[in-house]
Amino acid sequence: MAKNSEMVLAIDIGGTFTKLGLVNRAGIVLSNNVFKTGAKQPFGEFTKKLTKEVNQLLSTIDSSDTILAIGIGAPNANYKTGEMINPPNFIWGKSIPIKKTVQDILDRPSYITNDANAAALGELYFGLGTNMKNFVVLTLGTGLGSGIINERQLLYGNYGMAGELGHVNVFSDGRQCNCGLQGCLETYASVTGIKRSVFQLLADRTTKSILRNYSFEKLSGEKISEAAHHGDAIALQAFEQTAKILGSKMADTVAHLEPEAFILTGGLSQAGALFLNPLNRYMEAALFTAYRGKVKILLSEASSKEAVLGPAALAWQGLNTT
Amino acid sequence: MAKNSEMVLAIDIGGTFTKLGLVNRAGIVLSNNVFKTGAKQPFGEFTKKLTKEVNQLLSTIDSSDTILAIGIGAPNANYKTGEMINPPNFIWGKSIPIKKTVQDILDRPSYITNDANAAALGELYFGLGTNMKNFVVLTLGTGLGSGIINERQLLYGNYGMAGELGHVNVFSDGRQCNCGLQGCLETYASVTGIKRSVFQLLADRTTKSILRNYSFEKLSGEKISEAAHHGDAIALQAFEQTAKILGSKMADTVAHLEPEAFILTGGLSQAGALFLNPLNRYMEAALFTAYRGKVKILLSEASSKEAVLGPAALAWQGLNTT
Q1: What is the pTM of this model?
Q2: How many domains does chain B have?
Q3: Smallest Cβ distance to A150: which of B150, B168, B286?
């Protein structure tokens, strides 16, 4: 690492892994670290691990280097209060003072937003969005998260909670969602959603399928993808149904925002063309005439290690605007 | 009218009436004019009438007054090209050079946008939105138009076509829409939409109703409203169904934008509490937890004459930003 470098500390808190990185203004990850979040263990355990890992990372830099700020991306994080509000799949409590916790470890100006918003900023400054003014990032993982960029700004809404596209309604009497509603988009269009679709298809049909050998807990997005690539009819149909529902709802998002592109990340997006082709077809078929042929669907090029680019972008943006 | 006044010429082109007004910086309509648009007659006829009416309006001002700019709101108008693109219910052609036509009559800096976007700007500068940063205007007339205000700016999207909420999907195999798709929101939640719902209910049920005496052509929003106010079961059910569908889709819009409020205008909104109460109830029930109890539904207070305030706001905004 060059001496006298300026950098930010970026922290991406996920349901499974927490990723740390030191990132310079050009979006280069100078050094990084990963540990298991422990979402099902007490918050105090997380704090201990985070303290240790941050200090380990800080020990890698030269004394002439400067850490200017901290950026944090976390599920259900509110940028105004600095808290994670009731994040599903975490047992840490109803409002978790995550920003304060980080600042107690390293006292720097800190910026926080939810993980999907952070991913959108990462694409805006360092990824596929560097030349775009309006786009939407969809994170298709355990759930469906979203971050909306409008005129090169994150769209926050009135209380900083805009862009919860995982909870637009698909069917009024549809699948039960963790949020308490029924028929939310993420119960169909996410890794968990496609698993549920596979189980529905296995129940409805008599078709032979390799996927009959997995419990719900053991079934994964990769296994469904792999089965589809081998021509498994149930897996292929599950991708088709998922693409139909998500494509129709993406058309609704276009009717709101008219973005130049969607950028997809997360487990479900890793199926590639198998998913992207029907998704494009269904979205186009559902688009209002004026929008047809104008909205791209792209796959994020950020590597796993580069998940810290989102929080890093947030930190650099915060420094530039304050 | 005071001498030496500064004002803009505002033109609101509707499917039935075209409204003209001279409006000052404070949003006072100094003088105004209305004529029948003639959407089913050749465009040349409209140009003749517009020329005559604009000149008549100009004859009312003092020679010391100054008209600084022109603002135009029109169906399917594109602010970038200055054209109306294929407006439904008009026989004027596929792309109508409306901005050029107006400038040929009066040579001033001219600004154009679609009628619902203009209505949103009218609320922002002179109406219920003067103290709000984020809100959505829904015009519930023949169709359903929408204008989105984000951080006190009209949200335009990538090609200036954002905010076509009339064409989000309600049911994939739903009602036929003028736009070529099926199940669009405006086929349910508009004056035409509720007429269709009344006809569906009259077909499905044996309930007595005053509305059995009207042809589709003669049935109007006012008549359905009036019947509902008199306790007509079909009319009441039609409002209930409309509120359920629109409320659910407004919840989806909140999941995108998290506005502080919706502001409703147009024929359907004039039913008042009869419509507003179930709409509020259904929207709340469909909202993601984080949004509940935070989003207001308001009825626009602009009078019919004040329809020109939208295009006027567009003109004043244009002058301020150029």
Answers
A1: 0.94
A2: 2
A3: B150
For residue B204, the distance in angstroms to the closest alpha carbon of chain A comes to 21
Instruction: List residues bridging with B72 in a β-sheet.
Output: B11, B112
Q: Tell whether the model's pLDDT for residue B189 goes beyond 70.
A: yes
ipTM score for this prediction: 0.94
Cβ–Cβ contact B178 with A under 8 A: no
**Which of the pair, B294 or B78, is modelled with greater confidence?**
B294
pLDDT over 90 (residue B82): yes
**How many whole angstroms separate alpha carbon A158 and alpha carbon A145?**
18
In this prediction, residue B173 carries a pLDDT of 94
Residue B188 in domain:
yes
User: For residues A315 and A8, is the Cβ–Cβ distance under 8 A?
Assistant: yes
Torsions phi, psi for A47 (to 5 deg): -55, -45
**Domain presence at residue A309:** no
Tens digit of each residue's pLDDT (9 = 90 or more) over B51-72: 999 999 999 998 889 999 999 9
Same domain, B118 and B143: no
B181 in reach of chain A (CB within 8 A):
yes
CB pairs under 8 A between A and B: 110
| Residue B139, token pair as written in the block | 């015009």
CB contact under 8 A, A258 and B161: yes
What does the alpha-carbon distance between residue B270 and residue B83 come to, in Å, rounded to a whole number? 31
- Coil, helix or strand at residue A16: coil
Question: Which residue stretches of chain A have pLDDT < 50?
Answer: none
